[in-house]
Amino acid sequence: MDESPLSRWLALREPADRAARSAWLTHALIERLPHGRPLRVVDLGTGSGSNVRYLEPALSGSGDDHSTRAVEWLLVDHDEALLEEARRRQPRVETRLMNLGHLDSGLFDERDLVTASALLDLVSERWLQSLATRCRSAGAAALFALNYNGESRCAPPESEDEFIRVLMNDHQRQNDRGFGRAAGPDASAIAARCFEAAGYFVERARSNWQLTPDDRELQSRLVSGWADAALEIAPECTPMIRDWLGRRLAHIDAGRSRVTVGHDDLAAWLEHV
Asked: What is the reported pLDDT for 105?
């Protein structure tokens, strides 16, 4: 089966995601989940299932006596091909094909944990409020990883880097992928407020990508995407943006480029359920 562009992008970013995630925050959340029975977890916007692959070992091996326990997964996405890929790689999971623009309360019923990766910056504040309310009604904990926070740095630097970053962030805030106008770089802070308002204790931790010269294809796709976003926001700056992109790609091709992309992980749990 041919690999789709989106599947390729998810495969490229998975090692960087895994390296960036906050292990201490993940384990702090897991320590507060129920013990002595199977865990029921829903992964929103699962894509090809990278969040499942990251969390499964920690969730299934976190019993007080270091024994394994069952995890009952529900994987939700609107992309049938990605869900099929997730099923091939995690055959013992339940999947559901659906658009998450409207949060069905049935997704949350009797769930111990609601989780997602690289999702919250794509959704709106109203959606985040609904998410927190749904989680609270179910008494579920929440773990949302790799939420873009608006920060990025490139080395060697170019004089236009900051201008491109600002345009990229403006583009994110104007995005609407069916969830309402995206929270973009403000998503982590907004989500924290929404969950705190719903009665949760919230912790956040940095989970920055630290891309090295070995991450050549990932870097190339990343800065090309930044340029595309900048061109949509400021088409009058096309010559400058294209010239910037050419220099950034030259750094990547020469093996001297390093890129940091800012992310936050967010965990939320109820002290008394």
From this structure: 81
